[in-house]
Write a structure and sequence with these properties.
- Helices cover about 25% and strands about 20% of the residues.
- The protein is an alpha+beta fold and about 425 residues long.
- The chain has a six-stranded mixed beta sheet. A five-stranded mixed beta sheet has the order 10-11-12-13-14.
- α3 (about 100-115) runs antiparallel to α4 and α5 (about 270-280) packs antiparallel against α6 (about 295-305).
- The longest helix is centred in the N-terminal third of the chain and has 17 residues, at about 100-115.
- It is globular and about 75 Å long.
- The relative contact order is 0.13.
- Residues about 140-205, about 210-225 and about 240-250 have low confidence and may be disordered.
């Protein structure tokens, strides 16, 4: 049998971030004082595991590259800010997003459509959007409109139907207060089936309008920006010196602080294998379903019901993670896993992995029964993207039953064998023989 040749991982030419140490793996009882690990929180929504806290998202993805942003390619760094406008306004010291007037109008249209779906009449829709479009005073101190005093936000003011800027109290009508999707729901998120205006997207439970009861300077509890700076053309009058009081109308671009009418939040979505590894192997994640934390055994059974091949793919994921690799899904290359050194920002994937669960005789119901043609095709695809095709066999004892597989403790009795598949090139083989 030919021995596989190890090829060094291919490093990316351009790296835009620094490497952080991954989350620690507890290897046993520490004889000294017990170190307290931070326990992150995730929620199980439908068939997905979602992390909503910005601090938890940063830690999980930064230390080990767990998960993927629901709105970003990988790192959860989605921003509504226009990068070109932000680059041209470097002199503006603010952490608020800067967007164009056209983008703001799009969000107003989304908000109006959301209110109509909630059954509001046109007069209520106009009144609500007027409150949202009122210029505000932002921390820079710039006037929000030419010749107009800025509207101020006061903690404790609330309601979507109106705000008294002088007294800070709300004006309420006989109608019931509008229920908006942007309200902070705390520990009780609404089910996806009850959320209108979000196209029934379970990953965007809080998208939509905001209540008018937030403090401009007390933001940060929610991941979505509550206020934005809108670049708009403002009409003004300029007097030229040494002229007979001739006034000329000029157009100039100014940043006007306004309330974001339609927020879109980004969350960190964990694969089932990543979520279970954080719970079972690292013990640093708690997954909740309807306010109740799920135990390891319940998670094992729930993930198996969601994904019938979960036991097999998790066994391989656990094995390679313990070896120091960063496994990611290999769906785009037709495989189960992709193995990265350190993480996707630093190296290209070295291996495309196919996982199978077999007995000692390498027999059993295969998940992907290959023919020579399909195997050669997959090998060629992996070679064209500079990856090696690996067959990972999880070998279970002959005495292991289906009941034993109902608990993750069965992983202790499973052995792993790796086989690297390479394409035989006749010309290369002849040259090697000639050298001998």
């Amino acid at each position: 049998m030919a021995e596989a040749v190890f090829h060094a991982p291919k490093r990316k030419r351009r790296v835009y971030e620094s490497y952080e140490s991954p989350l620690p793996i507890p290897l046993g009882q520490d004889p000294g004082p017990r170190k307290e690990f931070r326990v992150f929180r995730a929620e199980m929504i439908d068939s997905h595991v979602i992390v909503r806290s910005p601090a938890d998202m940063e830690q999980l993805h930064g230390k080990g590259y767990f998960g993927k942003g629901t709105l970003s390619r990988s790192r959860p760094s989605f921003s509504v800010s226009d990068p070109r406008l932000a680059a041209g306004r470097k002199d503006v010291e603010t952490n608020m997003p800067i967007i164009t007037s056209e983008k703001y109008q799009h969000r107003l249209a989304w908000a109006a459509d959301l209110l109509r779906r909630q059954g509001q009449d046109e007069s209520t829709v106009r009144r609500v959007l007027e409150e949202y479009t009122r210029p505000l005073e932002h921390p820079g101190g710039e006037s929000s409109a030419e010749g107009q005093p800025p509207a101020r936000l006061t903690a404790g003011t609330g309601g979507l139907l109106g705000m008294d800027g002088a007294s800070g109290t709300t004006k309420e009508t006989g109608e019931s207060r509008l229920k908006t999707l942007g309200e902070h729901t705390g520990e009780d998120p609404a089910p996806a089936s009850q959320v209108p205006g979000c196209a029934q997207d379970a990953l965007s439970l809080q998208c939509g309008l905001l209540p008018l009861d937030s403090n401009l300077h007390a933001r940060g509890a929610e991941p979505g920006p509550e206020f934005v700076l809108v670049e708009e053309g403002v009409s003004g009058r300029s007097e030229e010196e040494n002229t007979s009081a001739t006034e000329e109308l000029v157009q100039r671009k100014r940043l006007i602080c306004r309330r974001n009418p339609y927020r879109i939040f980004e969350y960190l979505q964990l694969s089932l294998e990543e979520a279970f590894f954080l719970v079972y192997a690292l013990g640093c994640l708690s997954i909740y379903y309807k306010k109740e934390p799920l135990t390891i055994v319940k998670l094992w059974k729930a993930f198996t019901a969601i994904q019938p091949t979960f036991r097999t793919t998790y066994g391989a994921y656990h094995y390679f993670r313990s070896k120091g690799w960063v496994p990611k899904t290999g769906l785009k290359y037709g495989t189960d896993l992709l193995l990265y050194r350190k993480g996707p920002p630093f190296y290209h994937a070295s291996y495309s992995v196919i996982v199978e669960l077999v007995d000692k005789g390498f027999a059993g119901p295969l998940r992907r029964p290959f023919t020579w043609k399909s195997l050669a095709t997959l090998s060629r695809v992996s070679g064209n993207v500079s990856k090696e095709l690996m067959l990972c066999y999880l070998i279970k004892p002959s005495t292991m039953t289906d009941e034993d597989m109902e608990s993750p403790e069965c992983l202790r009795r499973i052995k792993v064998q790796e086989v690297i598949l390479s394409r035989w090139v006749s010309s290369r083989e002849r040259s090697d023989q000639d050298e001998l």
